[in-house]
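Internal QA ticket QA-208
Title: Verify multi-chain structure generation after dependency bump
Assignee: T.L.

Test input:
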Amino acid sequence: EAQVTQNPRYLITVTGKKLTVTCSQNMNHEYMSWYRQDPGLGLRQIYYSMNVEVTDKGDVPEGYKVSRKEKRNFPLILESPSPNQTSLYFCASSLGGTGYNEQYFGPGTRLTVT
Amino acid sequence: SQQGEEDPQALSIQEGENATMNCSYKTSINNLQWYRQNSGRGLVHLILIRSNEREKHSGRLRVTLDTSKKSSSLLITASRAADTASYFCATDPNNAGNMLTFGGGTRLMVKP
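Actual output:
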């Protein structure tokens, strides 16, 4: 089944404790991205990757890191999480860029930073 | 910043009625996409309309695009309780093929 998977689905952590949210897709998609969703602010793009070893900042990259060493994986790294990073995170992928390609979204990771 | 703004923010209708949601955006676009999100879940792509298209249909969905007004509408006909969800429009604000900006969404509730 074609899908985007994220792990963990739920995470409660403390301020400053490094964490990684994994994202994997099995559709051989070139483009992958991360979003966060907050009430009243909608979905905002954190980072995106056009292909392996090519990543770039989205609208809200501060406090996050990403890497794209393999085509299928695009982990999101929070080196020192803070409470303002409490949010619902989504990974997405598409065949090519965002121009004319539908995005396939993962199920989401609900992160709470205390 | 949000490229698209949906209107209304929330909509409540009875099953069988039609639901219309509107989206306005700020910059010229090559295409506009609509997505649905069931509560707390990942978004699902519904339809993509290109800038040279004025109307597009997919099942009970009808999307229009007016580039002169920088606006789009999503019509769901004969709504069902299962259509209860949030609906978002999304555009590539720079037409560079690398980013997607979502509007704030319309929360639709369809009462049985």
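Spot checks passed. The mean pLDDT of chain B is 92.
Status: verified.
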